[in-house]
Structures are given as structure tokens and as C-alpha cells.
Amino acid sequence: MSHPIPPGTRDVLPEEMRELRSIGGRMRAAFEDAGYGEVHTPALEYEEVLLRGDARAAGARYRSFDEQGAVLALRSDMTIPIARVVATRYAYAKPPLRFSYLAHAWRVTDRGVGEPREFLQAGIELIGVPGADGEAEVVALTVEALNAAGLRRHRVGVGDGALYRGLLSSFGVSAEAHMPLLETLSRRDLVGLEAQVSRLGLDPGQRDLLVELPQLRGGAEILSQTPGLEGLQSLHARLEERGVADRVIYDLGMVRELGYYTGSVFEVYDPAVGFTLGGGGRYDELIGRFGRDLPACGIALDVQRVHLAQAAEDALGAKEQPE
Amino acid sequence: MNDRLTIAVPRGALFGGTLDLLDRLGVDTSEVRSNDRRLLFADVGIVTMRPSDVPTYVEHGSADIGITGKDVLLEQSQRKVYELLDLGYGQCEMVVAAPGGGDPIGDALRRLGRVRIATKYPKVAGEHFQATGRQAEIVEVKGSVELAPLTGLVDGIVDLTATGKTLAENNLTIVERIATCTARLIANPVAHKLKAAEIDAIVEQVRR
Asked: Are the C-beta atoms of residues A236 and A223 closer than 8 Å to each other?
């Protein structure tokens, strides 16, 4: 007999559940130990409220109506609900505020059959610590939480989400032309990007910079090659102080898809798997949209992907070091 | 993923050009050339497959980089892979073609309000007709697309053509050009960061 469940959702049975619980629990403990208290918010929110945060990130495409006719949406991340919590429940609390979560979020993708639409995320939000200090704390705790989860080779990619846009503006490229360029860049269609940049009619030096900059990625050495990277340089100095600088890859072409990021952006990788384990960044304007103007940054990790990476690392480790 | 790059190589029309390119990069392709049936050549880091499977393996990270046609990338634009280089070879045109003599596509649109198009590229075809403001019913076929208008299944086709010979032999003429397609070098997003030096070395060598 077939009794289907919605596409992108799945049942988790005891053996897998034990492992997911163990990974999630160890990450949660790492967050708590660092002073990030766990919060829980409703899975369903008023769509209108989520929209205040970000039009593109607001709510999955699963919607429903309540008995009053109001539109309810499943949250598509925990960052917007926590921004709401900060502005309402902590309206007068003295920053900094530190929150963590281990919760589901939903996102509908147009991709292949079986692509997950329901995610278990483990994440943190650091509110009220501006600039490199806040970002270094989030990156360092991410590395530590994944250590606790049993990964050994994970890395954090760090970019500046405002960098390319800033360059375009400083070269006098009109704001309408930004969107298609940033969209091509976010797909890393470097062939298309080169063609689009060539059509802007800039002088050769500017054109080459716009084509070559997004290809720069690596250690701290790339940060000294380009002007305007003071933010990432001071982040690097703080990551060195925290002893995690060698776990970070700087990537000047990184553009995160969500619209609310205002500065540094993060992605998490493990060499055992070909997909990112999570991501985040700085979002200094989001909480202000709910009425309390505070800088913030955070990161979310997909617990199931962390589990896949951990299993892949185990398999590789077993192959590389036969007993 | 280990430290040497695994390369997804397309069999079919791009196979020869790709092996020549790999020779120039110093990859030993003699085993691949002499062995028609084997798919995996682990000692030189090559896996061979149909061009349309290359983005799948690269997206998943089973191959770090790969070579495939722009036609495949256009059709599978949802894949999370990075497009690094236009390799220039394997040039083809993505075209709209219809039986010669008369204007079957225009006639169908005028009289029936929509046109029927057969293709192996339903996404590219659908988007092309949508972008040009015409209603099209896309019929996906797996085999020879040229057959479809000859039997009355459709009014025209969207397909890839290198010389136009097969089209001409089936009395089809090119009525619109959608895109020029060449071989592209693509990379897995995570490998692009974690194996940046190895990937950049290849990009550098190809560009030279």
C-alpha cells in the first residue's frame, strides 16, 4: 500500500534518529556553553510579519489561512523569527544578545525529485556586536560546534556580500544594471559574467577587476591584493587571535542568495562532500525592520548535511587508515 | 574527494576535443582512448559519461570539475555548478527549425493560437517561446527530433545543430537561432574553494 508524504519531506527511523540527535545535541551543547541560549518560535507565523523581514526569505511557499482569514506561512529560516523576538520580547534588553536554535525550517525548491524541503537547522544569532568582533565570534563557534559534532576537516568560507555591489557603484554602473550582474555572479557563471561586464563599457582596468576579483579565493594572502577589504582583514586578525584562521577560506566572489545580508557572508564546507553544510552572514538592517535597530550576524547549519559529511569523513578515514 | 582532481569527461561529440585538451594539460589519456567500454579511469582521475550527466556528477562532487556543452547547462540551469571557462570547441547552434516551404510555425500561431514544438531541450524551448511572446506546446522526445514534424506530430523543433546537414536531409530549415553552444569547463562549488589551487592551475593552462 502506498500512503505518500509531501515531496521533500521524510520519515526518520530510530537508527538515523539516534545519530541525528547525537549530532544536534552536541552542537546545541557547544552553543549553550558559549552563552547562546536556545529559543523556540512557532513553525507557523503570519506571513505579513515574516515579509517585514525580507520579501524573498519570508516564509516557505507553504501557506495556509487561519479562521480569521489571515495568511499563515511556514518559516523558511530561524533568523527572521529571532529578529522578531529580539524586537518584541527583548525590546529594552541590553545588548549583546546571544541565541541558538535547533529547529525545522521549510523551503520549496524547483529542483529534482527528493530534494529536501524540510530542514533541521542548528544555528546561532549574535545580536548587538558590530563588525569583525561579532563575525569572528560566530565563525569560531561554528568551527567549534562542528568539532563537537565529530567533523575534523570542515572549513568556513568567508566573503563580503557588499563588496561587488560597492565596486559596481564606485565604477559608476547604474543600480538597474547591478541585479543581473549579481545574479550571474551568485551562480558563478564566470563565462556569462565576463560577457556582461565587457558590455558595461568600463575602462580595461575596471573591467579586469570585475572579472578577476570573484575568482580570488584562498588564505589571508588574497586580502592584501585588493583595496577595500579592511573589514575582512580585521576579521582575519581576530580569527587568528581565536586560533581558527587556518579553518577559513576567503572567497571574494561569494554572494549569498538571501537579501538581508549587509556585509560578511559565510558558507561551511567539508572536503568529504560536494555541498555546503550551511551558511550565514551579517544582517545589520533586519532587526531594525522590526523596530529595534541592532547590528547582528549568525549562521545556520543543516544537521542532516552535517550528518552526511560526518558519515563521509568516517568512510574516508576508514579507507585512509586501515587498521 | 581526494586531493587530485576528478574530471568528468563527456562521451559523444565533445569526447575527442576534450581528450585533446586533457593531453595538452598533461593528463595521460591513452588508456581512455584505447578503451571504449570502461567508464572509470581512477589512476588518471577521469570518469566518462554522457554530456547531460556531467552536471549531475559535478554538482554532487563525485567529480570536482567537468566538461560539457552549453546546451546541457542551459537545459539544466538549476544545477549548482560553477561555469569557469568557455573552451571554444564543439561549437553548435541551438535553433528553431521547421519543414521547408511555407511557415508552419507562423501558420499554427495565427490559426490555432499556439505552436507545437518537439525537442530534447524542453526548458530551453519553453523559455525561448515564452520570452518571444508565443504560446507553445512543448513535446519532449528522446530520439531523433527531426522525425517529429515529418510525421505531423509537431509544427517545428528546437534542436542543436553543428552543420545543419541532418536538418537539410530531413527537409527542415533553420528559422531562428537561440544560442551558440560550445564546450564549457564547470566546477563543483565546494571543490572550487577547497581545491582552488589545482582548479586555478587548469584554468590558467587552458587560457594560455
From this structure: yes
Burial, B165: exposed, middle or buried (Cβ in 10 Å; 0-12, 13-18, 19+)?
Answer: exposed
The DSSP bridge pattern shows strands B92-99 and B82-86 to be unpaired
Q: What 8-state DSSP symbol labels residue B5?
A: P
Here the ipTM equals: 0.83
CB A99 within 8 A of CB A127: yes
Q: Which residues in chain A have their CB less than 8 angstroms from residue B200's CB?
A: 215
Q: Who contacts A249 (Cβ-Cβ below 8 Å, separation ≥6)?
A: A155, A156, A157, A158, A217, A218, A219, A269, B193, B194, B196
What is the number of CB-based contacts under 8 A between chain A and chain B? 60
* pTM confidence score: 0.87
Amino acid at B99: P
Amino acid residing at B43: D
Cβ <8 Å between A271 and B190: yes
Rounded to an integer, what distance in angstroms lies between the CA atom of residue B208 and that of residue B205? Answer: 5
Minimum Cα–Cα distance from A273: chain B residue: B61
Chain centroid offset of residue B152 CA:
27
Cβ(A94)–Cβ(A296) below 8 Å: no
Which grid coordinates belong to A58?
A: 519570508
Q: Which residues neighbour B17 within 8 Å (Cβ) at sequence distance 6 or greater?
A: B87, B89, B90, B183
Q: pLDDT tens digit string along B135-192?
A: 999 999 999 999 999 999 999 999 999 998 999 999 999 999 999 999 999 999 999 9
Question: B84 contacts in A (CB within 8 Å)?
Answer: 190-191
> Who's near A47: CB < 8 A, 6+ residues apart?
A58, A59, A63, A71, A72, A73
Among the partner residues B184, B189, B194, nearest to A155 by beta-carbon distance: B194
Q: In this predicted model, what pLDDT tens digit does every residue of B49-91 receive, in sequence order?
A: 999 999 999 999 999 999 999 999 999 998 999 999 999 999 9
Encoded amino acid at B36, one letter: D
Taking a C-beta distance cutoff of 8 angstroms, is the pair A141, A36 a contact? yes
Q: Is B205 helix (H, G, I), strand (E, B) or coil?
A: helix
